[in-house]
Amino acid sequence: MIATVAVYYWFRYGGTFKHRNKPEWDTVPEIVKRDMFFAKACMDDLIAFELAIRAKPQEILEHSDVESIQTLKPLIKVEQDLVGTLWNSMRKKALGPRIKKPKKIFLIVEESYSQFAFDDIYKDIPIANAGRLIREQNTTIHSDNFLAGGLISQPSISSMLNGIYDVNLELNEKAYFWNNQLPTSLGKQISELGYTCSLWYGGSLSWSSLGLFAKGNGFHNVYSGFDATSSDTPHTWLGVHDHLFLDGIKQVLQSSNSDSCEFHYIYTTSNHGPYTIPIEKYGVEKATLLKGLPKHLHKYVEDIGTYAYCDYYLSEFVRYIQETYEDSLVIVTGDHTRRLPMPCQDANRVHTLREDISTAFYMLHKDFDKGLLNNTRIGTHMNILPTIMELVAPKNHEYVSLFPSLFESQALIVTPYHWISNSHIGFFKDQRVETLEGTPVYDYNLTDIVALQRAYMEVTGAIVRHHV
Q1: How far apart are CA 81 and CA 65, in angstroms?
Q2: 236-280, pLDDT tens digit by residue?
Q3: Which of 105, 325, 396, 426 could cysteine-pair with 433, CB 3.0–4.6 Å?
Q4: Cβ neighbours for 166, distance < 8 A, ≥ 6 positions apart
Q5: What's the rounded Cα separation, in Å, for the pair 295 and 449?
């Protein structure tokens, strides 16, 4: 019996007993992924069979145009030419630049960077002290109620780059998007402003086919953490340690010393389990950290310490950008959120929904002032592209975006997974609703919000059906 179990797991993990070493789609080299037959052949047969058994048809891809038109009614009225009407409804014209066109734009996506770490109730926990100082600068604007495009990394990144919600279709893994751009594509539209676009990812570009997907999205250059650092650089199973990755980017930028307009999309990996990074070696003293933590959080010191490590080196990198490229525009967010295993100072306190699902967001430029966004309270990843456009694009420059910029007041923001208004926040899976302050609401009418959720998902379904 023991031998049978051992043989099963050896095959199950593709010739290894270590789960993390099993061959996976994310480890297939990009050059192999371009041939779909050989790429799929790299996956262990038992794993492929299991995935095939679990796979279910995507309902929104089976809709007719008539069904799509009906579902889209809360968002847009379509009479004919479904996809053409969708694209035209997203076309916008910039009002004119609000800042002098910066030579460098940095959009930094920190793994699992969460808003709760900056809330006042957590200020005594040394988890994001460095980031707090950046957010408190007079030229930094931040939103305390910000939703990611997905609950996990892949749909968040795919949605942000494609400009339409991924809705768990894994659009980044479809060969069509390795070779074609949507009108909403981030890389394509930023490059139309005259920027050379580069994507930097702390791990392997094979993860979620990110290298192929970014190239198809309109990025001119793509770099992995291993491209930006030496071959012997320490790394976790996800990617190069954040401070080494960011140092590698600095060195590449310094060596190029380019005065041209550049857009850099930077995505880190270290703020992620199993928290094996030697944080003490990199300046986070566990003993000092423990003194600042309530006793019920002591057993999570590696988790919290890793967060503090990532926040510190991210903030150091932002300061480097401010000093080196004085006119740069810097935008920082998380790919999604994560929470502390137990909340703040009170072990009996329950996490609020906003703490669970609101990711961090701030942006800075030397000419910003705190009133620039007219006290906009809510936002989402899908607001980032139009906000860049409204900051730097010339007047009447046309761009395509599913959402407005953060300069426009929004009463309600809906994603496929959650929603937020200026007073409430909700999670679709369990229909949980709370006020932004954390008070549960049990009789909230979700009918219109669910209809809008389905409409946003139908946008993706209709486009994918007609394009892919």
Answers
A1: 9
A2: 889 999 999 999 999 999 998 778 999 999 999 999 988 999 999
A3: 426
A4: 149, 150, 154, 155, 158, 159, 172, 460
A5: 41
